Here is the input.
Amino acid sequence: MSLHPTAVVAPEAVVPASCFVGPFCTIGPEVVLGEDCRLISHVVVDGRTRIGARNVIYPFTSIGVPPQDLKYAGEPTETVVGDDNTIRESVTISRGTVGGGGVTRLGSKCLLMTCAHIGHDCQVGSHCILANAATLAGHVIIEDYVTLGAFCPVHQHCIVGKYAFVGGGTIVTKDVLPFSLTASRRENKAFGINKIGLARRGFSPQRLQTLQKAFRLLLTSKMNTTQALEKLRSMDGDDVALLTAFIGRSERGIIK
Here is the structure.
């Protein structure tokens, strides 16, 4: 392996020969890295942490550090990171807690921009983008293909649905609808579907049209959420079924 002489790697750590560990990095004894990872410099990886292949981790990032939870008493909890992620400067990812399931998880092919934070017991899917200083409190679920804008704090136990786009500076205190474009203008609102983002992900015009119809029923009709759900359940399509299932299991309420 390419190991800078100033790096400190515990003898028990598993670091493949294909990895690059730059200046002043610290890797703890229970860390397992995948093939072809690059730790640029000043990276701290600690705790029971498993990181997949081909991840690029930039300076002053900390992964697997103890959670910012006063109840944590050193229990052997974990951090799991997938493959092909780009983790930029000063990102922090805390390990899990016993009360939250014990694992903080990040999927694959995500981009975490500068100063993003993933709190304890969060579950972040794949193909997600967390822009600069987007912060997840504990127990947050971010589903696949989500984009969080800069300076977005997400409250504990919130869920951000699949393919959602959350505008910069939005304070998320309720669940964010899948497929939605949600932003804050004095108050948080869902402004319809994330049409451009969904098209870039390969959604056909027919799928987009169906989702637009569903969102009109949910957001702009005079029906309340319960009435709109009854109408949505009569519509065809997997996307609408995913949307209705998400609303049905929401515990914190949804942003409309």
The helical segments are 195-200, 205-220, 225-233, 238-249. The chain has a mean pLDDT of 95. The longest strand covers residues 187-193.
